[in-house]
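YtkA-like domain-containing protein
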Amino acid sequence: MALLTVSLTLLTVGFLPGLLSSWTDDSLSLTGGTSDDEITLTVDRPRIGATDVGIRLTPRRGARNGPLPDVTLQAVLPTAGHATPEASAHARGDGAYSTTVHLMTPGRWTFRVSVEHGGRTDEFDFPVAISG
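Structure:
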């Protein structure tokens, strides 16, 4: 009986990391916005290390006139006092932007997106759980 228990425990421990990584490797999308814009943040792989992030801006009232907005991203881990440098997001066309941040530890991060357009800056905070 003890051998069966040890065997089942080893099997569970052996498969658990694979199961957990499949849950945490899935991309994550969150949406927020203002009365003027809808913003969608997509984290391709919410794990520590280099993390690719997509940002999509969608104007709520038709097409945007003038130059493209400047978009930046900073990841903050308030419970540990960590923050990444502010990273400029690169315009990919049709309201899509992308950037990469380097996350040094797991935890409940806040991804702060800043959008500067026409002399106004809007900030959006997205809570993201990052695993190891």
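The radius of gyration is 19 Å.
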